[in-house]
């Protein structure tokens, strides 16, 4: 077990602490994701949008979908079982979306990966 991972079983209090926003003038990336609650999820989603704009031939992948879906779950304080909702499966089928909706375990694993990536970026900047 990784001792550096935060407790992920109850994120409500953590998310409410992270929702504090800076009152400075927003950058273009911040304006794109203005409605998001957490700065890191806004940055990550802006990065995905920018990658798509710079290279329109980028094909969306299941991995990218899981990454963004997990960030959305955390940003909106949704239950980790949201991807298991039968009505969401019906909506995805109706829209002919090819991606498989994640289970709560998949969400937890994705959030752990996102956390590790963020920690790696932070440790790289402190050198």
The secondary structure category is mainly alpha
Shape call = globular
Number of helical regions: 6
Radius of gyration: 16 Å
Give me the count of strands.
0
Low-confidence stretches: none
Main pleated-sheet profile: none
Q: Helical percent range?
A: 55-70%
Give the N-terminus to C-terminus distance in angstroms.
Answer: 26 Å
pLDDT averaged over residues: 75
Strand content: under 5%
**H-E order:** HHHHHH
General description of the model:
By secondary structure, the protein is an all-alpha fold. The protein has helices spanning 12-18, 28-32, 39-54, 62-75, 86-94, 104-125. The two termini are 26 Å apart. The mean pLDDT is 75.
Helix-strand layout with pairing:
Layout: H1 12-18, H2 28-32, H3 39-54, H4 62-75, H5 86-94, H6 104-125
Describe the structure concisely.
57% of the residues lie in helices and 0% in strands. With 127 residues, the chain is mainly α.
């Amino acid at each position: 077990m990784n001792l550096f991972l935060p407790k992920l079983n109850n994120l409500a209090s953590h998310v409410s602490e992270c929702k504090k926003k800076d009152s400075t003038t927003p950058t273009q990336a911040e304006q794109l994701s203005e409605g998001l609650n957490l700065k890191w999820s806004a940055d990550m989603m802006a990065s995905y949008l920018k990658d798509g704009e710079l290279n329109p031939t980028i094909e969306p992948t299941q991995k990218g979908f899981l990454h963004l879906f997990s960030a959305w779950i955390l940003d909106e304080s949704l239950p980790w079982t949201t991807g298991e909702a039968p009505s969401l499966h019906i909506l995805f089928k109706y829209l002919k979306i090819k991606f498989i909706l994640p289970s709560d375990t998949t969400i937890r694993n994705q959030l752990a990966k996102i956390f590790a990536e963020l920690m790696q970026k932070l440790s790289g900047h402190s050198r």
